[in-house]
Design a protein that fits this description.
By secondary structure, the chain is of the alpha+beta class. It contains three helices and four strands; from the N terminus they run βββαβαα.
Length: 111
């Protein structure tokens, strides 16, 4: 199982663990196969990432757009390191900001 960003979820994926909203309310239980309605519920309640069965643990990039490689994202994260050196990148918001900045940097370097 591995954490996956909400934007990388696809219909048919299976949850590896329960999903709760910010207040602790159970939204979806472990083992649920995601439908389009489930994806909408997760976005509505502000869920940022979920555990998915079959994905590698510790892969922050999850599914990348076809034109961007893991090497490009890793290089972009390394280049962005000095900008985030005084930030707690373990905090979910900062981790997501760094991930999005790296994806944007990798995509724009292709142009």
């Amino acid at each position: 199982m591995g954490l996956t960003q909400i934007d990388n979820l696809e219909v048919g994926m299976t949850l590896a663990s329960d999903v709760h909203d910010r207040t602790g309310r159970l939204l979806l239980g472990a083992g649920v196969e995601l439908s389009q309605k489930h994806l909408m519920v997760l976005r509505t309640w502000g869920v940022m990432e979920v555990n998915i069965v079959g994905l590698e643990e510790g892969d922050p990039n999850g599914h990348l757009p076809a034109e961007i490689t893991h090497e490009q994202v890793d290089a972009a994260m390394a280049a962005l390191g000095p900008l985030f050196c005084n930030s707690d990148v373990q905090h979910p918001v900062m981790r997501e900001l760094l991930r999005l900045a790296a994806l944007r940097k990798a995509a724009h370097e292709l142009c």
